[in-house]
Amino acid sequence: MSIPNKYKLPVSIAICLLVGFLSGISTSDNISGWYSTLEKPFFNPPNWIFGPVWTFLYILMGISLGKIWSSDISGKEKNKAIFIFGSQLAVNAIWSIFFFGMQNPLLAFIDIIILIILIVYTIKLFKPINRMASWLLYPYLAWVSFATILNLSIILLNN
Known about the structure:
Blueprint: H1 5-31, H2 34-37, H3 50-69, H4 76-101, H5 105-126, H6 131-135, H7 138-157
Helix pairs in contact: 1-3, 1-4, 4-5, 5-7
């Protein structure tokens, strides 16, 4: 069964938002508990900023995926790009489980390094298919890069 192009964009956005929502479940329970006990760097944003920023980024990611999925290009390049996008989305969700659910910043740091590599690779694969789709992922890359520094800082401050 093939999904008509007009549904691919909203489905893509919904998938990304759903992954964000599901990964946020392990986060929300620990914000006022374990996470509040950690020493954080001076540049740590207030907790309320993470929800809106991540929602915005998941929407951009969904738009990006939708542009690739609905593109006229077919074949291995497109399938590979979508597979790598899905892989980075899964690695993104796992970070919350490692950091908040398992309360393991070091394992989360390893995960986020893999995530950055996958985001860069996704951008590279998206660019020849749809340049705008690749550009839509740069804010995500920037935020995850910041989150990587934050993650590392929390490890260093709490060991």
